[in-house]
Amino acid sequence: MKKKFLALILAIILFLGASLACAESGVEPAAPAPEAAAEDPVVLRHTAVIQGQAVDYTTTTGYLTVDSSAGSCQMFYMAYTLDGAEDLSRRPITFAYNGGPGAASLYVQLGLLSPRRIAVDENGRSETFPVTLKDNEYSILDLTDLVFIDPVGTGYSRPAEGVDIKNFASYDSDLASVGEFIRLYTSRNDRWLSPKYLLGESYGTTRSVGLAGYLADTYEMDLNGIILISCLHNLTVLMDQENPPDLSYALYLPTYAAVAWYHQKLADEYQRMGLEDFLREVRSFAGGEYLSALFEGRTLDDAKKADIAARVAAFTGLSAEKVAGANLRVTYPDFCQSLLADQKLMIGRTDGRYTGPFTGNDMAENGTDPAAAAIDSIFAAAANHYIREELGYPSDLPYVSLSYDVNGYWEFPEVFGTGFTQESVLTNIMNRNRFLKVWVLCGYYDLATPFYAAEWELNHVFIHQDREANLRFTFYPSGHMFYMYEPALAQFRKEAEEWYR
After folding, report:
1. Which positions ≥6 away from 402 have C-beta within 8 Å?
2. Tens of pLDDT along 296-327?
3. Does 366 score more than 70 pLDDT?
4. Which domains does the chain have, with CATH numbers?
5. CA 106-109-114 angle, 5° bins
């Protein structure tokens, strides 16, 4: 039961006529492909506006049959290549996916990277319902070709006939199938000399770090870079487990503080501070006096406990009585349901900016996350329309955007059974590949994978001093899917230009 519950929680981490549609997106109509088979992709040419410039590109949509140690499967992908490149073999290429691990790639595709994205306002709310699509002026297609991968059990990806889907439902088998897809795509499209990058979100960051080692060890394929969005590399500090360690509470506290600041639940002295100045103070307290007090446990004297409770309350907008009553250990479900309880609202777990009516359900027991409720359905509708009408790939299969069944298959023996961490894996691959650059992107309002936890994890990657410049962080005033706040999306685009070029 515990493993199924933890797997379910990981799924929540995430987050996430035809001619007229083609004309609006700049697509050149192609002959219909009602029986498009595996290994027989649909290829279309398009035009979009990126950074004020018209960009011509080609999409290739279909399957690759992949044979790995997990078994045979058909993996669905959507690839974007810039037209007119002088030497395609030397142009950067980025393989992208989401997490879950039961999530398809639609979130980073239609929210962040591709030349088309969902039409949402500055704060990530849909401009219409159902949602529509528009050109993505922040796309990075002019900087790198893009290949979006749907792991087995997500999107249209399926195991071969007679192969059990559970064969693919583990950390190692996932690396084997996705890794073999990347090798096969690279070989068939003459991309071995291209600078190669991975981009993953949430559990996709776990996959990326594992893949960097797997590709190097198995195929001698080293990478130029990894982009890690909303990191998940040390599951021992997650609060989604029985009896989380004291460190978890210290690592979550700055996110509680950021969300309380956003909703203006703090005293004037903190509300007047800029967010980053405020969080520097909270970080110092969380990793110092607060963690030390937690370490003392029941031996902490009453006066000191009262003092720490008052300071936690001041940073989080909760009452000192509530904090003390929880023995200084407030869980994220309790925080989400308590911060705006006076308004009968709860806040989002994957993005604390979002609010919704309090449902009475415990978020840790399948309660409703207001952020997920606002986001998931608009992406699912957009993906189903986009793949059929704009990429020209018809299928009667359901496009599985987020599968709780897939997560239920994952027993995570390598993860939860052994105190899974990846700090040593990342240390090893960065030390042996001097060209590998790692870019970590975090949302301040993300209660699924807190930013301070990502800092703590990556601060325990003991790379050589001449590799220090290869590791960088960016923090956004947004949530788990940082790109659901347009100023953050614009900032990402600007920084991506520097990072790729």
Report:
1. 11, 14, 16, 100, 102, 103, 104, 154, 376, 380
2. 999 999 999 999 999 999 999 999 999 999 99
3. no
4. 2-30+40-235+395-500 (3.40.50.1820), 244-371 (no CATH)
5. 150
